[in-house]
Amino acid sequence: MLHTIPAFDRIGEENAFAVLARATRLAEQGRDIINLGIGQPDFSTPAHIVEAAVKALRDGHHGYTPANGLIATREAVVRRTLATTGVEVSPEAVMIMPGGKPTMFAAILMFGEPGAEILYPDPGFPIYRSMIEFTGATPVPVPMREENGFAFSAEETLALITPRTRLLVLNSPANPTGGVTPRAEIEKLVAGLAAFPDIAILSDEIYDVMTYDGEQQCSLLGFPDIRDRLIVLNGWSKTWAMTGWRMGWSIWPERLYDKVRKLAVNCWSCVNAPSQHAGIAAIDGPQDEVETMLRAFDRRRRVIVEGLNGLPGISCVTPKGAFYAYPNVRETGWPAKKLATTLLDEAGVATIGGPDFGVLGEGYIRLSYANSEENILRAIERMETFLTR
């Protein structure tokens, strides 16, 4: 009999991929499935980015790269960070990662152990809690409340800190809710964290440019007092429609940087060379296709919110960021996960049940509007037929 360590029995998963697999199987069986489950832009990667990768291959960039990434790629991240946040970082603080999740894995692994506590947003990206539990640490949910626009409360967050707290995970704009935490609330949180200098902070800013209605993302990089314990997660997947390229970056404080570099050496060695050249082209090249995509998301956001609010038993606050709607479905009388499953099976609409995003997710489902307006309207029509039946 094989004996694995208990930690591997504590690993969760991201159910959006399970729903994607089931939706794909149903489509292969001839069903007409509208997938509003997966968080993936339906746009293609811009052509100049693809060409940069092809050119890199033709130019012979076939070998290993440094564990922390090509210096040219890290310098591109420095330029992009300055442009979006007004903050200058050193390329020696930047790690190029194979996606966004490795940054979560590394940061939580550094601070999680039995007896420790890690605060994370709930509802939130499910990998936060999964990795916290994997390390043996205790996950402490920070409530993201509908009445607060799914932004975190600085007061409520600070009240959850104990002597065992080692890491605080933040995410704005947020998955799954689309919530954007206002600058004033972030300032209040940072001021309160001055009393807890030994707590590290992981700020997941992967949706940084995806804000609407005049909202602007407030990067934690803009607060010098916490820079020596701040880890910032970002990447190419969402902004440039590069989910399958597995390209992310993170910015680390000096005292943690070599630890994550060594983890990279031991775990994934390096990020592939052609993708890094594509990443440079994404940052330095024309951004018109990004702007086109963001305008489309904004239009779709309005369409999906209006449609959801017209359905019986459903209400939906207007998301201020990312590309997700997170409607309240309590008045339908359906448990959230059961509703999501049945919508896929009977109506051909893939969504994700709120409990897949945390212990506070009951009563909600997540829909991604990274799909066409036509498909969103068709999905709303199917949901209405199902709910009124």
Keywords:
Aspartate Aminotransferase, domain 1; Aminotransferase_I/II_large; pyridoxal phosphate binding; Aspartate Aminotransferase, domain 2; 3-stranded antiparallel beta sheet; 389 residues; transferase; EC 2.6.1.1; alpha/beta; 40% helix
Element layout with pairings:
Elements: H1 15-28, E1 34-35, H2 47-58, H3 71-85, E2 94-97, H4 101-111, E3 117-122, H5 126-135, E4 138-143, H6 154-159, E5 165-171, H7 183-193, E6 200-204, E7 230-235, E8 248-251, H8 254-267, H9 273-284, H10 288-309, E9 324-325, H11 336-347, E10 349-350, E11 352-353, E12 365-368, H12 373-388
Parallel strand pairs: 1-10, 3-4, 3-5, 5-6, 6-7
Antiparallel strand pairs: 2-8, 7-8, 9-12, 11-12
